[in-house]
Write a structure and sequence with these properties.
- By secondary structure, the protein is α/β, with parallel strands linked by helices.
- The protein has one domain: Roll (2,3-Dihydroxybiphenyl 1,2-Dioxygenase, domain 1).
- Helix content is about 15%, strand content about 40%.
- It is built from two helices and eight strands.
- The strands form two sheets. The chain has a four-stranded mixed beta sheet, covered by helices on one side. The chain has a four-stranded mixed beta sheet with strand order 5-8-7-6, with no helix packed on it.
- It starts with 7 loop residues before the first strand and ends with a strand.
- The model has no long low-confidence stretch (mean pLDDT about 95).
- InterPro entries: Glyas_Bleomycin-R_OHBP_Dase, Glyas_Fos-R_dOase_dom, GlyoxalaseI/FosfomycinResist, VOC_core.
- It holds the Pfam family Glyoxalase.
- This is Glyoxalase-like domain-containing protein.
- It comes from Jannaschia pohangensis.
Amino acid sequence: MQVTSLDHLVLTVADVTATAEWYAAVLGMEAQVFHPADGSRRVALAFGRQKINLHQAGAEWEPKAARPGPGTADLCFLTEAALSDWQVHLAARGVAVEAGPVARTGAQGPITSIYLRDPDGNLIEVSRLD
């Protein structure tokens, strides 16, 4: 038995709307409203063939992580764009680069990364395969 890929992950956030707007403007993700089988209204961030479901802190959907909370994630995203272009893009949006570019090792091999923080303080790594 073996899993084959990641379908989605969940971020618990302080403000779903602000988070969705930030990920759309800064990382180019698409905020999507969806209605699961229970009839609720939820928000996800779509990119590629993956998505990030957003849970409002204090009103998380069940089942949930044992200790959900804003600012507890460390996520790495791959890009095909030059990191120098990312630095210009981020500066134009007032988003500070915390570290990088720096050499790292990702799941697919060597990468070069820059690090920033989302509105909740989650560590966001934007990486390009070397």
